[in-house]
Design goal:
With 390 residues, the chain is mostly helical. The protein has 18 helices and three strands. The protein has a three-stranded mixed sheet.
Length: 390
C-alpha cells in the first residue's frame, strides 16, 4: 500500500491567508476608537513621509494612472471570464486565467489593506471637537446668544473679504494672483499650526493638477485626496481665488483630517496664517458661503422670519454687504473658464458623470458610517472665535 502524500498549502494561498488575516485584524481594531486615535496621531504620518515622498517624485497624478489601470484590469478580467466559457478546454488559456485571477486577488487585497490603513482608521478616530450651539452658549462668559455670535462671525468674515478684495494682487483681467509658490507656502502655513494640531508637522508632497479635470468639473469636484497614492490633487480649472484653500484642504487630508468639515477648518486656519494676502483671501472666501447661510438662518430664527423669503436675506445682508468684487471672486470658476468648459463637447454625458459621482460618494461614506459634513465648519469657526470676537 502506498502512502498518499499530504497535500500542502501552496505558498501563494499561505500568503493570501496571512494577508487576509492581517486585513481582518486591522478592520476589527478599526472599530476601537482609542487604537484609531493612536494610529492616526502617531503612525499614519509614516505613509506620507515615505510612500508620499515616493509618489511626490512624479510630476503627474499617480492616483489617476492607478485608477485607469484598475479599470483596465477589471475590464480584462470580465473579458477573460466570458472567454473562459468558450475556451475552458484550452489548457494554456485556463492556466493564463488562473494566473491572472490570482494576481487580481493579490491586487484586491492590497487595495483593501491600503483603504483600511488610509480610510477606515481615519474615519473611526476622534474628530476635532465640534461643540453644539447650546454647549457654546452655556460655557460662554457673555450674554450673547449663539445666533448673535454666528452673525458676529459672519460680519467679521465679510469685512475681511471686503478688505482683502481691494488689497490682493491681480492680473490684467482682474483675477487674483499669488505672490508665493503655493506648494511651498501652504505646507509652511499648515506646519505653523502643528503646536495645536500635532499631525500637521512634517513632510507635504506637492499638490498636483488632475489630468481629468474636465471630468472633475462635470462631477462638481474641486479637489481630491487619493488614499492609495497619498496625493493631494486639484481641478486645474478652479479659479485662483479658491485654489489656495482647496490645496490646503486636500493636504490636510494627508495628515489624517479625513472629514470635510475638519479639512475646511484646517485649510481656513492655514490660509489666514499666510503673509500672502491672496492666500488669506482664499481662506476667508472658502468659509464665506457656509457662515453666510447659517448666519441668515440664525437671523430668521431670532426675528421669527420666513427663511425662504428672499426679501429677508436682503434685509439681513444690508448691514454689512459683500462687495461687488467679493461676489465676483467668490466663484469656483471664472466666468471665462466656465463658458469655455460649458462649450466643450463632453466624452461622457454630464448627468451620467454627476450621477455616478454622487452614487459612489454616498456609498463610500455609508460604508464608513460618515457624512459629507462640509457645513459643520461653522461650529468650528464659532468655537475658534470664542474669546476673540465675543
Amino acid at each position: 500500500m502506498t502512502l498518499q502524500k499530504k497535500r500542502r498549502i501552496s505558498r501563494y494561498w499561505l500568503f493570501v491567508i496571512i494577508f487576509l488575516t492581517i486585513i481582518l485584524c486591522l478592520n476589527g481594531m478599526a472599530k476601537w476608537k482609542k487604537f484609531c486615535d493612536f494610529y492616526t496621531n502617531h503612525l499614519f504620518g509614516i505613509w506620507s513621509e515615505t510612500y508620499g515622498r515616493l509618489m511626490g517624485l512624479f510630476p503627474f497624478s499617480v492616483g489617476e494612472i492607478l485608477i485607469a489601470v484598475g479599470i483596465i484590469i477589471l475590464f480584462v478580467a470580465v473579458i477573460c471570464a466570458v472567454l473562459l466559457i468558450f475556451l475552458r478546454k484550452k489548457e494554456g488559456y485556463k492556466r493564463f486565467c488562473i494566473r491572472y485571477f490570482k494576481s487580481l486577488l493579490v491586487i484586491l487585497l492590497c487595495v483593501i489593506l491600503v483603504m483600511t490603513l488610509n480610510c477606515s482608521m481615519l474615519y473611526n478616530c476622534s474628530k476635532l471637537k465640534v461643540v453644539s450651539e447650546g454647549e457654546l452658549q452655556n460655557r460662554s462668559q457673555n450674554t450673547l446668544s449663539s445666533e448673535e455670535k454666528m452673525i458676529l462671525v459672519r460680519n467679521y468674515i465679510v469685512e475681511k473679504c471686503n478688505e482683502l478684495a481691494s488689497l490682493v494682487n491681480r492680473d490684467e483681467k482682474g483675477y487674483i494672483t499669488y505672490a508665493k509658490d503655493l506648494n511651498k507656502e501652504l505646507p509652511e502655513c499648515l506646519r505653523s499650526l502643528s503646536e495645536d494640531y500635532s499631525r500637521l508637522a512634517g513632510y507635504y508632497p506637492k499638490a498636483k493638477p488632475m489630468m481629468a479635470s474636465y471630468i472633475m468639473y462635470q462631477a462638481g469636484i474641486l479637489g481630491e485626496y487619493f488614499p492609495f497614492s497619498m496625493e493631494a490633487n486639484y481641478n486645474k480649472y478652479i479659479s485662483d481665488s479658491y485654489k489656495a484653500a482647496v490645496i490646503a484642504h486636500e493636504l490636510s487630508h494627508l495628515k489624517g483630517y479625513i472629514y470635510e468639515d475638519e479639512a475646511n477648518f484646517i485649510a481656513f486656519m492655514a490660509c489666514i496664517k499666510s503673509d500672502d494676502l491672496s492666500v488669506q483671501y482664499s481662506g476667508y472666501l472658502s468659509v464665506l458661503d457656509y457662515i453666510e447661510g447659517d448666519a441668515y438662518t440664525a437671523y430668521c430664527l431670532m426675528n421669527r422670519l420666513d427663511e425662504a423669503n428672499i426679501e429677508n436675506y436682503f434685509l439681513f445682508s444690508s448691514d454689512i454687504p459683500e462687495s461687488e468684487q467679493v461676489l465676483s471672486d467668490n466663484l469656483c470658476y471664472t466666468e471665462e473658464t466656465w463658458e469655455e468648459l460649458e462649450e466643450t463637447e463632453p466624452v461622457i454625458d454630464r448627468d451620467v458623470v454627476e450621477s455616478f459621482s454622487n452614487t459612489f460618494t454616498e456609498s463610500y461614506l455609508d460604508y464608513y458610517g460618515a457624512e459629507a459634513n462640509y457645513d459643520e465648519v461653522t461650529l468650528l469657526l464659532l468655537e475658534y472665535y470664542e474669546g476673540i470676537l465675543y
